[in-house]
Structure prediction request, 170 residues.
Amino acid sequence: IGIQLFTNTRAITNLIHDSGSMGVIVYFLILSCAIVMLFPTPILKIFSGTFFGFSVGFLINFLASMLGGLLAFFIGRYFFKDIVSKLINKNKITKEIEKSIEKEGFKLSFLIRLSPIIPDEWLNYTLSISPISTKNFILSNCSSIIYSLIYAYYGAILGRVILTQKGLMD
Prediction:
């Protein structure tokens, strides 16, 4: 995906500029679905800053992290609890996290989100089978603002470099 995005920047840039606000909405929905489907999303989050700029890229990243995380949380909690439990019990780190969350739910889930040890996409499902409340999950998911800022910033800088080299930006 990354190679395609780099080699086809002119076509992608034209597509995004021609699509207007619809392009933002579609990208937001794609990113939210990618989070739910456990795709590694950092490259998509970086490219949101590349193609939409820092401010819009940041909003896309943050809102998609919130929506995708909440959907994954509900899906894990209400539809696939048994499957998620089996997967988590196979992984020693996630198993320990689940036990620890019972004692210090909000604080621990907030701090774990800041660590790159477990990807956010997997953490949403891990937290879905823990005793953490939906309110605490949403509040801890707000820590994704930090990575949303970082990815959008890197993407915006990357976009300026790539688009300037390709002659698409003055």
